[in-house]
Specification:
Blueprint (H helix, E strand, L loop, with lengths): L4 E2 L5 E2 L6 E2 L3 E3 L4 H13 L4 E3 L15 E3 L7 E5 L4 E5 L4 H10 L2 E2 L11 H6 L16 E7 L5 E5 L4 H7 L8 E8 L1 E2 L2 E10 H6 L1 H7 L2 E6 L5 E10 L8 H25 L4 H10 L4 E5 L1 H5 L7 E9 L3 H15 L7 E6 L14 E9 L5 H13 L3 E2 L9 H7 L3 H11 L8 H7 L2
Parallel strand pairs: 4-6, 5-6
Antiparallel strand pairs: 1-2, 2-3, 7-8, 8-12, 9-13, 10-11, 10-12, 14-16, 14-17, 15-16, 15-19, 18-20, 18-21, 19-20
Helix pairs in contact: 10-11
Amino acid sequence: MSSTASGKNGTWRNWGGNVTVRPAREVVPASVDELAAAVRQAAEDGLKVKAVGSGHSFTAIAATDGVSVRPQLLTGIRDIDRKAMTVTVEAGTPLKRLNVALAREGLSLTNMGDIMEQTVSGATSTGTHGTGRESASLAAQIRELELVTADGSVLTCSEKENPEVFAAARVGLGALGIVTAITFAVEPVFLLTAREEPMPLDRVLAEFDQLRTENEHFEFYWFPHTGNTNTKRNNRSAGPPQPVGQLAGWFEDEFLSNGVFHAAQLLGRAVPAVVPTVARISSTALSARSYTDIPYKVFTSPRRVRFVEMEYAVPREALVDTLRELKAMVDRSGLRVNFPVEVRTAPADDIALSTASARDSAYVAVHMFRGTPYQAYFTAAERIFTAHEGRPHWGKVHTRDADYFAGVYPRFGEFTALRDQLDPDRLFQNDYLRRVLGP
């Protein structure tokens, strides 16, 4: 699936279809040296520079009317260090290709999100994450970063080398430079057993702490207009592998999760009144299933139904209240919400602008089918999230600005000071960064 669409007239559009921009020029560097030269040239020409990956962000974080850098030639594995158990990968490598290549080498990342279309640099720069009791976001698995800074120099950072840059650049929002290579911690490939099971929302909320502590990876989906959820627990397994059968896999993951789901979305968009009925039917049609496979085949799933998304990280202890308030809001609002709400968790990490920075977090993601009006729902949801000092995912729809972030991120000032140092002339600036980081 090609996620970045370049139109006839050089227009770029993101995956969700809600951001469109026409850059002055596009560059596709074949090496780090070529990229550094393109950055220097842009500065000379008085143009801003942004790198854009697969376009999976719903915000305009990668949009520019200056120079748009496409990293599709900066792909592949540079180095595997089996002694240190790390892999160094070029920034434009899609997660999908990294996962397959690692599996071939008998290796795996410890944790990942549920979509693997994104580039490694796009996913980490926006703080993309899965769910985990001990294991955190993709960025928290980074051991070293290489980036081209505003003066065209190449900077390497890790806990030992340029540690202050490392503390910020792992979730750098594209504001500190253009990431060219990432070194991830990896481990020998392992098996996960997934157990998917429908469960009443009231029970999930009552037992949330227990479900989270008893499972390495716990998440659930709540179907608005119903009291139903589908839960998913992933835990390490001694085996043997028992993958989802091909026919069952096609039926559950392609036909139900993508085909029928897409048809239901089209119906709900055309006739909003049927949404609650469709939600009840679809949430009760789910049955429990269990399967065992290598990590990326368990953590990730295909997402062919296009949507727009808002996701906030709230303090973990605020999750149950947040969800109850969200349900009460939907029930009394007259809104017709045709997409499940996704809930995941992450442990605190030490990255300046990670949504889990210095606090154990729970993530609540609200979605709407592409082309359905989402503003009223997202605005009402955002009011609930921000009342709990929520931190929005950097790549998903939100209306927050620098003043707000200074209040919810203890290390916000540290990040902006580093940006002043690395990019004093704001070569990597765009409208989105102006809003979220301040002028």
